[in-house]
Amino acid sequence: MTDIRTAIIIGGGIAGPVTALALHRAGIAATVYEAYPSTADGIGGTLALAPNGVAALRIVGADELVTDIGTPIHRSVLAIGANRIDLPVLTGVPPLRVVHRNALHRVLHERAVAEGVPIAYGKRLVAARETATGVTAEFADGSTTSADILIGADGVHSTVRALIDPQSPGPRYTGVLGFESVAEHTVAAEPGTMTFTFGRRGYYLYWPEPGGGTRWGANLPQDRPMSLAEARAVPSAEWLHRLRAVYGDDDPGAALIRTSDPDELRISGSLHIMPPVPHWHRGRMVLVGDAVHAPSNSSGQGASLAIESAMQLARCLRDLPDVPAAFAAYERLRRARVEGIAARAARINHAKAPGPVGRVVMPVMMRLLMKVAMRPEKTLGPEQRYAIDWAASAATEQPA
């Protein structure tokens, strides 16, 4: 085991509290420093937790907290016009869970606090100084703190990533803004069914909301990225008007947008992905979660991969003899997996909204694809059946 006893975690989103819980289990005391003045309520929309992500949360006793607040998705359907094609699913694994980011933040923070993890708000990192035995974080308010290691769990716009490698690539803007709401309109779909729809001009998804109505998500093309503050400065009614221009000719897209309350529209802002990051760590600093691997949301794995990485980082710090060895083992166990899943999601993203001819041909092609290429055990099995053996030593483990 390393002689690491204390850690600074920058970022209080999902990866931050989970990393603190994992370190706590490994015997390392961590404090989470969050730039926002309070928990990030109202930030982001709904996200998916795959079976592997929930399994990783079980290590720190947080799995039931999440399944209790998540909506299970038992069936996924691809819709092209009037055609409905069932997407392949794995057998013998729990269902995908969709959960609002606010609710996930809340239960993870509460769990961390209950375990004695300190969380400090209003602490925006601006610099870090390393010595042979530790690292000191400097915050925008002039305060400092020191520990044995510093972990960047500060998202795609990570400050820690730039401190580790000033030449590191930044996030890539996907060209779209994300939106979400719950419509009064009720779709003709069984509860637990998520429908991915190729409309006439764009792509959207929806599922029946347990409390009534239909939750939907859609993207709008945007030439330049907009900060969340910029996107929210535009009146929600204006955004709905723009969404109606794209999806207003679709069924049920038109009804979903028409029966959505502007005041309930969730604006996620610009959507980004992370390209491969050359350097995951340097000295006593290391990255975890979206700061180092943020696949497209079409992967359905972003949050789950962040949770997995938190657990593996804690195992490596527990089992390897020193910091360089622990960080190297962590990267070795994680890089191929996260980059492989990101590559799969990127291939999915190449699908565009089909034109008039494509809308006729695509259903036939998709059915052939489902029979020939989409073998769920081959494509989804390695992702969703993945489980971390906490009790085993990370020192001898090979990458999945």
From TrEMBL:
InterPro entries: FAD-bd, FAD-dep_Monooxygenase_BioMet, FAD/NAD-bd_sf. Keywords: Monooxygenase, Oxidoreductase. One of its GO terms (molecular function) is FAD binding. Residues 7-176, 279-342 form the FAD-binding domain. PANTHER family: MONOOXYGENASE, PUTATIVE (AFU_ORTHOLOGUE AFUA_6G14510)-RELATED. This is FAD-dependent oxidoreductase. The lineage of its organism: Bacteria, Bacillati, Actinomycetota, Actinomycetes, Micromonosporales.
